[in-house]
Amino acid sequence: MKSMKFEEVFSSKPRMKILKIISRLGTLNVSDIARRIKLNYSTTNQHLKVLESEKILQQRVYGRIRMYRFKDASPRAIAVQNLLDVWEQTSVQ
Amino acid sequence: MLYANSVFKDESKLDINYVPKALPHREKEYRLLMEFFNFLFQFSEKMSQRVIITGDVGTGKTALSNRFGADITLQANKKKIKLKYIHVNCREYRGKISLILQHILTIFQANFPKRGYSSEEVLDMLFQILDEEATHIILALDEFDTLIKNEGSETVYKLTRLQEMRSNKPQRISLLFILRDLALINDLDESSKSTLQRNIVNLKKYDINQLVDILNERVDMSFNLYAVNDDVINSIAEFGYSESGNARFAIDLLWRAGKYADANNKRVVGMECLREAVSSIFPSIRKSEIDSLTLHEKLFLLAIARFFNYNDVACASISEIEESYEIVCEEYSEKPNSHTQIWKYVQLLSALGIIKIKVRSASKRGRSTFISLPTIPSNELEKELNASLRKKVSEKHEI
Question: What SS3 class is residue B203?
């Protein structure tokens, strides 16, 4: 998959929702993510592939299950998690 | 302060899930368990182990396993060995291996989907996670009896051969089977039986002195200083012993007696608190039983109730009760019966399970019989008997 521009990656509402949910709950499988963000499986899957190709998320396959989480030791993943943490904390105040 | 007017300083130390730092009278078994799993410190990926812990209810199987699990994990982690102890009660998962494996998986991946996977698939996923994390787990399957009964030989066989199904791969799962009745293993097929019966830690039932030690230790941890009488501890130990050496039952009884002391605003847990605790567990005396007694049997029982109501002791000699009986007879204007007759009352009340008798060598003159009122609160019994006797006396006067 061709690399996307920063604004393209973050301009998608579903992708932001995915990142928020994974930041809050940790590792999740595709169907679970789709259900939580109220999108169908294949659209969710496409968004997940984008986030994976941009080195923000990583996929683990366990038999028939595909689980997604933030990519280990990826500066992008760390930056996104930090941004979401700060956003969450300051929103509470 | 929460415990300002309580006999307790920390009642959580009497909770069923509390595991003390050391288990009295289980030191040998603990060392044996550590020996069985010693390989983990050197070859955690090259070996795995299967051990059975067996023993009656309340002999410390779960406590021993949990203590061992916590200690070995700590030791391993200090040596940078990735080890996790997982304790599962098979009964909570209806003895179903698929539910148990699913639960274990969620320990590593909290959001793992819960439905639609066979046990084999879940097991493969678990091994994959353990390989990724380079972790060895000791899986303690408590109440393993439930799993054997539900799943039968086939599953048990697979469990015992987990590692052999993954040849040339690191060993990841050791098993600790905890079960009450070792005879259940005999119903399994020969191969499962032979693999399982290699390492057995057998916990014998606690004797009275061991139960006293256990109770004393828990009293020190959970009650204020001098808040529990020695008589109470000894009596609880006797109860625990009569319930197949059940330490769990004894500890629960101790907690209940403490609760009754608090409810009655007492500073010390005495025999009466224990009787109330016991009567809350065992069925107490029925009114019909009292009504069926003759006048003098009632008077004698009242004498017993009074004695224990005013003396916070666990047992009394027959002569002590006889003295109390004479006073009761005086009160009800009755002539006390002879010693031979009294002995018959003792036998009858004991047969009815209202009192307990014990023969001990008490003095130089020989053996004496001691009476105790273990399960019925003496004040309740006294009230009940007074009411029944008043009725009987008034009937007598009417005639």
Answer: strand
Q: Which tokens go with B14?
A: 């009497």
Query: Which residues face B142 on adjacent strands?
Result: B89
User: Do residues B102 and B140 make contact, with C-beta atoms less than 8 angstroms apart?
Assistant: no
Q: Which of A26, A63, A64 sits opposite B111 (nearest CB)?
A: A26
Share of chain B above pLDDT 70, in %: 94
Q: Where are the beta strands (DSSP E) in chain B?
A: 50-55, 83-89, 136-142, 173-179, 200-203, 315-317, 356-363, 366-372
Q: Quote ipTM for the complex.
A: 0.77
Question: Best of A25, A29, A36, A62 to disrupt the B interface by mutation (most B CBs within 10 Å)?
Answer: A62
Would you call B43 exposed, middle or buried from its count of C-beta atoms within 10 A (0-12, 13-18, 19+)?
exposed
Are B216 and B66 in contact by the 8 Å Cβ rule? The answer is no
pLDDT at A93 over 60: no
How would you classify the pairing of strands B315-317 and B136-142?
unpaired
d(CA B77, CA B98): 29
pLDDT at residue number B1:
44
Q: Which residue has the tokens 């399982």?
A: B196
- In 10 A of CB B338, how many CB atoms? 8
Nearest to A79 by CA among A55, A60, A49: A55
For chain A, the structural domain boundaries read 7-92
Q: Give the closest of B111, B124, B128 to A27, CB-based.
A: B111
Strands B136-142 and B173-179: parallel
Which candidate, B123, B93, B92, places its Cα nearest to that of B105? B123
For chain A, give the longest Cα–Cα distance: 43
Judge: B128–A29 Cβ closer than 8 Å, yes or no.
Answer: no
Nearest CA in chain A to B128: A62
Instruction: Take residue B40 and report the two structure tokens written for it.
Output: 């983990």
Q: Which fold would CATH assign to domain A7-92?
A: Arc Repressor Mutant, subunit A (1.10.10)
Please count the CA atoms within 13 angstroms of the CA of A26 that sit on its side-chain side: 7
β-pair type (B173-179, B50-55):
parallel
Question: What is the maximum span of chain B, computed from C-alpha positions, in angstroms?
Answer: 95
Averaged pLDDT for residues B340-346: 91
A73: tokens are: 């030791």
Domains of chain B: 27-203 (3.40.50.300), 207-281 (1.10.8.60), 287-398 (1.10.10.10)
pTM for the model stands at 0.77
Q: Does A65 touch chain B (CB under 8 A)?
A: yes
User: Are A27 and B117 in contact (CB < 8 Å)?
Assistant: no
